[in-house]
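Weekly structure sync, notes
Attendees: PL (lead), two postdocs, one rotation student
Agenda item 3: pending single-chain targets
PL asked that the sequence for the first pending target be pasted directly into the notes so everyone works from the same version. It is reproduced below exactly as submitted, 475 residues in total.
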Amino acid sequence: MNNILINPQLTAMYPEIFLGIVAFGMLLMGKRTHDWKIYTSIAIISLLISMVLLIRFDSSYVSYYGGAFLISNFGLYFALIMIVSSLYVAFSAGTTLRDNPEVFFATFLFVNVAMIIAAFSMNLIFIFIAFEGVSVGTYILSAYGKTRRNLEASAKYFFTGIIATGFIVLGSSYYYMATGTFNLISGVPEKGPMLIALILLFVGFGFKLALVPMQQWAVDAYDGTSNPVSAYLSSGTKVLAFFILLRVFLVGFSHFYTDVFYLFVIVSIITMTYGNFAALSENNLKRMLAYSSIAQAGYLILVIAVVSGSSSTFAFTVAIFAAMYYSLVYIFMKGGSFLSVGAVRKDKVEVNDLEGIGIKSPLFAVSLSILMLSLAGIPPTAGFFAKYYLFLSLISGNLWWLAVIGILNSAISVFYYLRVITVMFRKNDSNEFNLSSPVMLPLVLAAILTIVLSFVIFYYPQLSSIVYGLGVMGR
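Predicted structure, written out during the meeting:
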């Protein structure tokens, strides 16, 4: 029995096993109590314990199950920040639950199990199963509340998810035809099937990241779900999709970097431009934030363009650091922005509904302003440094023209972010706001962390090498 428990392959799965047991325990507890505070506390404590178990991993370059499961520093970093995203929205999510909190949080923990598995997977079958675990769980979370808007958003999300699943399965099949294995680290593949796999897998995984033209589900889903679920879909699961794109296309398609480069450059330009221009004319606050999220996805995949299109080691290093830093900052920038929508007592919140909140609560207005400036990439926020390192990697990789396009898009985004800021400080005594702690605390925390993360990097630039030292692709 002891030999089984200390088996290294089983030890590597301890965090997932622990969270799974707790999730099943919650479902059994549902027959005894429906107090959301109990389940929220259990979920938060369980996620913290899972982080400790992850950190105790031997994070050296060790693989299990024939190379399908890779314990690495790079995967560890993303697993931890995805759990951080879950911790960030857990309290706010609990306060919005009307009934059956045990079902919500059990599903929430199962989603985290799948996320951790995805973070260490180096096999398309493992990635697909983990990815679907996250997808099915978030379908349930998005429908929670059972209002017409919730169910409509969940249905749209579900049907687009099925389409994405089909592309991933078909793409994985062609990948196997080309390489003879589902492992991402393989020999020299056949070009024909590999290029088909490239397109199919890009479409499948691109749905989750809401890249154009696979983006419209995100706008409807973010708008129709509860604010905590919107925050989670736009932050934690989006970081997961970005991580999977990094791993699949930079490791699995390392022999076809030229094709990867052109594909991601074209889609990045279209995605960031579409997202920013669509947000300019949008009055619905959550839909505006959704279009902003699409534009942010366009910036994120520039990392893949740098790594696949440049031979500069310095550009590669800066790009990977930008991916890691941007992902962490993004959780608080975007998650906090969506949670702030809960301050307005309406189902469909317009930007103008924020009028007067700067007078009634300067703390709220200043905190949200910090997040808007950070998303726009204005110093001294963390969003500025995230984009700085991203554009630096482009310039260092002799892709300055792509950096110019990204900077111009950032300039366009300033207009709709500043619009939110100016509206908040207009006088309007007729609007009513919910400024309770479940709304205020996450927003203020996000604003503080957005500033703290920027000053940490600014005053301690050596931390950039420490973060990067957590691991590079495949490590």
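Discussion points:
- The chain has two domains: 1-252, 265-475.
- Residues 1-6, 465-475 have pLDDT under 50 and may be disordered.
Action: rotation student to compare against the earlier draft before next sync.
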